[in-house]
Amino acid sequence: DATTNAEPVKAVPTLPDAQTVTAVKHWTDKLFSFRVSRPSTMRFRSGEFVMIGLMGEVNPKTGKQKPLLRAYSIASPSWDDELEFYSIKVQDGPLTSRLQHIQVGDEIILRPKPVGTLVHDALIPGKRIWFFATGTGFAPFASLLRDPQTYEDYDEIIITHTCRTAGELTYGAELIANLKQDEMMLELLGEDNLNKIRYYPTTTREESPKMGRITDLMRSGEAFSDLGVDPINPDSDRAMVCGNLAFNLEIKDMLEGYGLEEGANSKPAQYVVEKAFLD
Ligand code: A2P
Predict the structure, then answer these.
(1) Which fold has domain 18-115?
(2) Which residues are CB-neighbours of 62 under 8 A, at least 6 positions away?
(3) What is the β-pairing status of strands 107-115 and 197-203?
(4) pLDDT in tens, 9-38
(5) Where are the beta strands (DSSP E) in the chain?
(6) Rounded to an integer, what distance in angstroms lies between the CA atom of residue 204 and that of residue 214?
(7) Whose CA is nearest to atom 20 of ligand 1?
(8) CATH of domain 120-275
(9) For residue 168, how many other CB atoms are within 10 A of its CB?
(10) Is the C-beta atom of 201 inside 6 A of ligand 1?
């Protein structure tokens, strides 16, 4: 046994799972997106999230550094060979105050263990799917809108996005517009399928073509009449929700009121909810 006479081996700190930043785009003073390399063995389902982050500061007492990690929805689809993330920038946020400064070539930590409930497996078949997002809660839908399965499973895809300002809608608006302009997306998803998308953006604190919280617009019936669809019902409609906590709770209540039941990976049903990341 070669180890018998060896010197005791010093404990080598395990290197965190580093990935390299390949692109960064700043959308507003509070929002940015970035892409990183994808571990070759990492598989995930569109809509899932992973833990990502940076090494924390050195603890002056112990001299040790711990990774500072947060849950981030993967915004890229499962077939993509890179991973995309969409993030807020919180000036005093432990992670995003630093993460917002990353540049191409930098490394971030990514734990390659995707999980989450915003997956097609957690829903039973339906005719129409609603994606309800506020703020950075658009991220998992950026993934699902680029996944062919979304179009195989549904005749109609309604994506609502409520933000405070019009600038905060840009990431999502551009992504949806680009689906039909990108040759590769057109070929992969098909033009007829892309025509299934109905995009319903709203703002609450700045003038835009449609103002108001999606919850209020649904309660009044305005959202349904704008879209020319019947109110949500459990026979035809399915929903995925991703936004701030208050929004999630409110829309969950509304969906239950329409008669939809919450699903999970282990027990698929009619809607699923996930909290958007906040630093
Ligand atoms: P509002 O401006 O009326 O609070 P935030 O940036 O705070 O996460 O909010 C993102 C968007 O979600 C904002 O447009 C905000 O509207 C909206 N919002 C916040 N809470 C709710 C809720 N309970 N129901 C619907 N929309 C909400």
Answers:
(1) Elongation Factor Tu (Ef-tu); domain 3 (2.40.30)
(2) none
(3) unpaired
(4) 555 555 569 999 999 999 999 999 999 999
(5) 18-28, 31-37, 49-58, 65-73, 82-88, 107-115, 128-134, 156-163, 197-203, 237-243, 271-275
(6) 9
(7) 247
(8) 3.40.50.80
(9) 25
(10) no
